[in-house]
Amino acid sequence: MVYQAPYLSYDLSRRGPGGVRTATWGEFMGDLGFRDPDFLARQIGWWRETIRARRISLVIGDYAPCALIAARTLGVPCVGVSTGYGLPPSHLESFPVLLPESAERIYDEMEMVGALNSALARWGAAPIERLPQVYECDARVVTSFPMLDPYAQDRREPNAPPHADLSRDLAEGGDEIFIYFSTTERENAELMNAIEALKAPVRLFMPNIDEALAERFVRAGVMVERAPAPVDDLCRRTRLMVNSGQHGIVSLGLAAGLPQALFSQHLEHLFTARQLEKAGVGRTMPRKASAAEIAGAIESVYHDATAAQAARALAADVRPLLAQDLQAVIRARVAGL
Question: Could you tell me the residue range of the domain that residue 198 belongs to?
Answer without folding.
Answer: 176-321
